[in-house]
Amino acid sequence: MTAIRFDCVSKSYPRYLHMRRGLKASLLSLGRTVEEASTQKVQALQNVSFDIGLGETVGVIGSNGSGKSTALALMAGVLESESG
Question: Which one-letter DSSP state was computed for residue 71?
């Protein structure tokens, strides 16, 4: 019996840009900066599929930025997936 099923789950986050100019120049171009930031995204999970059976023990291993915390947050219901 399946306890948790991920079926083609995807999740992305907006990419935040760092200020590379001074405060005055950044404020003057704030509209363009907000527009650029809203269009750039980081794909945390893309079409991930797996099943965890009732009573199974699973370890989640991966390098930094590989989507481990995102997957766990989706399983716990803290985040909502974009698809799947």
Answer: H
